[in-house]
Amino acid sequence: MARRSEHSLEEIKEMVLSAAETIVVEDGFGALKVRQIAMEIGYTVGSIYMVFENMGDLITHLKARTLDDIAVELDKVITNDADPQEQLIALSKAYANFANQHFNRWSMIFEHRSTNDAALPDWYQQKINEIFKRVEVLFKQLAPQSTQQQQQQAAQALWSGIHGVCQLSLTGKLEAVGENNTGKTVLLLAENFIKGWQQIE
Q1: Is the same domain home to 96 and 29?
Q2: % of the chain beyond a pLDDT of 90
Q3: Distance (Å, rounded) from C-alpha 94 to C-alpha 43?
Q4: Could you tell me if residue 61 is inside a domain?
Q5: Does a structural domain hold residue 60?
Q6: Residue 84 lies in a domain
C-alpha cells in the first residue's frame, strides 16, 4: 500500500483519474467503483476522497478528460481556409469516429447522472459550451443573417442528431432500420441538415 507522503495530492489525483479511465475503457462505466480504483493505485479509499469531494466529483473530472480529448480530435479537422460546410461535415465525422473508437469513454459522458440533481460545475459546462462554439461559428458563416440563438439551436440540433445516430448504431439498435453504418448515416444527416440551414431567412 502506497503512503500519502510518496505522492503529492495532485499526483494522487492524476493517478486516480488514470486508473479510473483504464477501468472504464476495459470494463465499462458500470465497473467503476471507488474501492477498485483504490486497489489499482495502492491507496485507501480515504486517500481518494482527499482529492475528490465524492464519487460524483471524480466522475465529473473523468468525463471532463473525455471532453478534452473530443475537443482535440475536433480541432484536428478545423482549418481557417476551409469551406464551412465541409468543416461541419468533417466535425460530424470526427465526433462519430471518436465515439466509435472510444465507445466506453464516450458513452460514460451520457450514462452518469448526478443523484442529487446538482447543477454541472461552471468549469465543466464551459467545456461543453466550447465544443458547441466550434460548430456555432460555422453555422454563422453559412448563414450570416441568422441570430446567435438560431446558431446555438442549430449546433445543438445537429449534434443531438449525430449523437443519436452514434448511440443507436454503436449499440446495434440501428440495425432495426436496415443498416448499421454510422459513417454513412452521420454524413446523410449532416449534409441534409446543412442544406436546410442554408435556406434560413
Answers
A1: no
A2: 77
A3: 37
A4: no
A5: no
A6: yes
